[in-house]
Amino acid sequence: xxxxxxxxxxxxxARAGEITTDHGKIQTPIFMPVGTAGSVKGVNQRDLIEDVGxxxxxxxxxxxxxRPGMETMNLAGGLHKFxxxxxxxxxxxGGYQVFSLAENRKLKDEGxxxxxxxxxxxxxxxxxxxxxxxxxxxxxxxxxxxxxxxYPCEYNYAKxxxxxxxxxxxxxxxxxxxxxPLYGHSQTFFPIVQGSVFKDLRIESAETIxxxxxxxxxxxxxxxxxxxxxxxxxxxxxxxxxPQDKPRYLMGVGTPVNILEGIARGIDMFDCVMPTRxxxxxxxxxxxxxxxxxNVKWKNDFSPIDENGSSFVDLQFSKAYLRHLIIAKExxxxxxxxxxxxxxYLWLVxxxxxxxxxxxxxxxxxxxIEKLSFRL
RNA sequence: GGGGAGAUACCUAAGUGGCCAACAGGGGCAGACUGUAAAUCUGCUGGCGUACGCCUUCGUAGGUUCGAAUCCUGCUCUCCCCA
Length: 376
Fold this sequence. Notes:
The chain is an alpha/beta fold. The protein has helices at residues 45-52, 61-66, 70-76, 79-83, 95-100, 127-137, 155-177, 199-210, 228-239, 256-264, 274-280, 312-316, 319-327, 331-358, 361-372, and strands at residues 2-8, 15-21, 24-28, 30-33, 57-60, 89-92, 105-107, 112-115, 122-125, 141-143, 188-190, 192-193, 217-219, 248-250, 269-272, 283-286, 289-292. The strands form five sheets. A five-stranded parallel beta sheet has the order 4-15-14-13-12. The longest helix has 28 residues, at 331-358.
């Protein structure tokens, strides 16, 4: 993997860059649609490329390991072939599931014992077998196995959790460096910064992971319920330490405003379920503000979904029609809303990149934030 | 013509003397959702009031009772079976 910075904003920490993988280039800052179980929910691969303009998508180690399972993944020749996607893929390690499925797991030094949310079967994830699984999935970028520290969180727990993530990182990297990709394209391994909302822990964590000298770094354990300002503060603290010449990935973030604020603080990569999940539940993000399409005020509004939108659905269908589809629980409603939101998210980062390059990022960002804080 | 069952809020439907402004679904309205156990979850849904509360409701008109959606009588309507 290669990372090149094309332009730096001179009023903020924002940068425009380009990541090169064996599956093609990614222009940063980038938003990566989440395709947990081998699908970006409600959006097919052709539309992801041709309409949304997705340059890279996510898969999830925990979910793919349980279903369809690694035998099928291996026989398919990896996730790219399995889902017929030849652009880059990043896989999350399952660290987030250690957090979100907490009642089903027990954390030990060796790894995470857990029972499947599907059939209750018992499994053990270790930093080593998480690498093996991600080798079989074959993602271009694979993530360290971490504990996504919950919030709120006592300092002592946050420290213990961070230390565990660091120990797991060391083992994971050792195993990664001693193993080979399976399908002829190269894979890179991103460590993850933890440390909850404690500045000294975040600094310690960032310094620790940087010492392993990898091709990119991620910031985890944010957007888990802490006030947004704390998230921004932690990004600033960590980005002081993460090297300029490596991509920085802020995991699980976020709202359009979060993304703009992240870009302004030097983040290059984002992922979030928000555009798809909230879309399925009737929330639309547009350049004029946020819409709850289920609200009765849209019942007879036959204007386009988003007249400035970049997806074909935006002009093709009316708000009233989309409202009807979502309320009637028609699958098409979820599909249209997901297409719209993902297109908006990709537009947001593409436009940011343009503005960073032409020098108008800061003022544009501020005017966008004002609009995006508004409920239509 | 004879016999039987029933009528509860926007809909379906529980309740058969006080704990009933009335279970539960649906529908409606609003909210939540951040490395997806989510096409999910939460709240409200007779009127007025922020609230304690007050007022009006269980087909309809009367009655019994301290007290009725619940018991009794008349009436209206609906459905089923037999002729």
